[in-house]
Predict the 3D structure of the following.
Amino acid sequence: MRSDKAESPALVKNMNGFRDILEKRRHTSDVLWITREWNPVRTVSDATATNPLSIRKAVLNSARLKETIKELCEERGVKPEVLYKEVEDQLSEIGHNRQISIVRWIGLLVTKVLKKTCSNLMVNEEAISKLKANMGNTPIIFAPSHRSYADFILMAYICFHYSIEIPCVAAGVDFMAMWLMGHLLRDCCAFFMRRQFSGDKLYYTVFSEYVRALICQGTAPVEFFIEGTRSRSAKSLVPKYGFLSMALEPFLTGQIPDVMIVPINISYDRILEEKLFAYELLGVPKPKESTSGLLKALNALDEKYGKIYADFGEPISMREFLESQMFERARHSVGPIHLQPLTDEEMAMIRVLSHHIVRSQQQISVLSPFHLVAVILNNNLLTHGTFEMQLSDLIREVAWFRSVIETFGATVDISGDVEKSVREALHVHKSLITLLPDGAVQLKAVHLPGTRIDTSRLKGHALLDDTMSRAVPLLMLQHYVNPALHFLANPALVTTVMQHLEPSGEILRDDLFARYQFVRGILAHEFVLHKSWEEKEFEEALRVLDLVNIVEVTTSGLLSLGNHRKLQVLLCNVLHPFFAGYLALSQTLAQVCGEARPEKLVMCEAQRRVEMALKSGEVSHPAALSLDGLSCGLQALVSLGAIYRIRRGDEVLYVANLKELEVVTKHLETFVALHGMDHKWSWQKLELHQSLPAKL
């Protein structure tokens, strides 16, 4: 990296605003703290706490519900009393409760668990103080990232710690079926929503009116996960718009003057579900939520999980956001509000907003030392065909990569001694990574040979046991690579394009942008890349690539690659598994989708093709097997016009547009070529450590 451009102080963030809120809990009485007088800050300061019964009454008395019941009575030929009974049942299913005594006791349990399993719970206290100072006059929506089931609990715990009213959080109805746990979540302000309800007009009306009442009449923040579900890969998911549109409708229709949305990121040094997620990505379905399953999972609490980071982003005022978008909301001023659905223009604005929220979550994420360790080990595999590295080499590479990714805008929790940080990270992840007596760092085998898997429930191809043995730990490691990719994706896309220039190695800026646009379109769903931001993000990528000497301007005004070969290789390598999976998918579609084929058949065949390519050495990373990645590939190919999606009843089918598909496939074949590996990849010779780790 060139010394004259290595540092960009405006980009390098730090951890100064963060505070470990577990520190005092380790030295004072948990019981006295949890039973303290608690007077929380509310979204509306001069009102009493949200009364769940008043919310139910508001729904029952809403004009929209009455109109819907009137319509359905005519359609179904039933009396209103029948439908109101159905509404009461739905409200009993949906409705939250607020039992502060339950909140306190769960808070005590959570404190004990966190102190046992986590070294620190780091919260950006400066951001919290700023948020509290602005609370009291405007409804607030919390929009946290979703990486673990622990997100629910941590949000409530942080709010209790800082005396903020416990949020009313939207939870999947699956949790209701869990004996005891469903009741406890409800008593801690969870309200429940079905996974699918677009075809049920009555339920949709009841639920949307419940959300409207929480926004307009509630005094607690409303919390929801904009990604819709936990990200099994630790990358951001393409945002869902349904709940957000419900929550914003009161503002867009003029019922309230403003609403504040707070993007929140919760980052984990290590997550509880790391192994479960690896199996899910390979097609093994998750166990059904149950209390017994939760109790079994408690065995994992004997292990250490390092640090957790929570950061609250800059609140988004919807009134100011609309002004910045030059959007007019006076269109609902004529006629009854409850009869006016949101317009296409409003839904388009909500889509832009949802991507803005996800981007804000990414920008305030924190990378732990192990995230950097994972990137370096992964790069070593793709460059040299092995994970094994000497600890001294790993420490040196982490120190180098830290300077790179901070230049790209990431916040990295390494202060002072890099060696100490790396050793602590390896200790936290000793179930996945081992340090041998000779100082070598090696990946461990975590999949037991002969593990019984119910093939009838598989979502993909039945992978061989030998494949599973290598793929599971590699996907677990990839889980910790992925959070860094939000900062690397755009620079990596530009670098990948420039690696494949003509012999002259030079290109016009506009030509580079055109090629970047195409490749970006292929990975747009993988990294949640919004179309309208592509030019701005291209310019930002060029700026940081200039800082690290990957892109240079020639004397003739053209762009060419600089001499930072080491970083060029790493940036191309981080995208390799995604291009490899997409290539297998494209080849599968060309082969089997001359006629409409069901999605599961396509996914199974694509996984089978990747498995064969891993054995032959054509593909060098099992992340290409990920069903989430293949699903993103399908969405991208639909967007590019390379395939067509057809829905027949509940079944989704795909048909190939062979001409366009061939264009995409040729590009992918080029990008899959490895950079820096000068030998034949051998999947079978990849060694995993089988014994216990050395003491760190």
